[in-house]
Specification:
Layout lengths: L1 H13 L5 E3 L5 H7 L5 E3 L3 H5 L4 E4 L4 H4 L3 H7 L5 E4 L8 H6 L3 E4 L4
Parallel strand pairs: 1-2, 3-4, 4-5
Length: 110
């Protein structure tokens, strides 16, 4: 989804000292060919994308992410991090994120 990568690019431009990781197996090759100059690390798995993240942005409906438990997600992230769920796919588990020390922001549709 082009909008996903444009959004990631905007985030990168706002914070040039940030390490950006992206995981979206359906569009990775396309994004790499369209935007080779972007400093984005394209990961091979959800766990690799989550590892040591300060902020995770879930921008698309992805079965691989939704099938993860909150403990798997938060266990890979840095404590005190932010999980931004643009599709509101984890809205019913908001309190679980809080229990693990991760701030949850749900936006958009449910």
């Amino acid at each position: 989804n082009l909008m996903v990568f444009l959004f990631i690019r905007q985030l990168y431009l706002l914070t040039k000292n940030t390490h950006v990781k992206a995981y979206y197996p359906l569009a990775t090759k396309t994004a790499q060919s369209w935007f080779p100059q972007w400093n984005i690390e394209y990961t091979q798995s959800t766990q690799e994308a989550l590892k040591d993240s300060d902020i995770v942005m879930l921008l698309v409906e992805c079965k691989e992410f939704v099938s993860l438990s909150v403990s798997e997600i938060t266990g890979a992230m840095k404590k005190g991090g932010w999980f931004i769920d643009v599709r509101d796919q984890f809205a019913s588990k908001r309190k679980e994120f809080d229990q693990y020390g991760i701030h949850y922001i749900g936006v958009g549709i449910t």
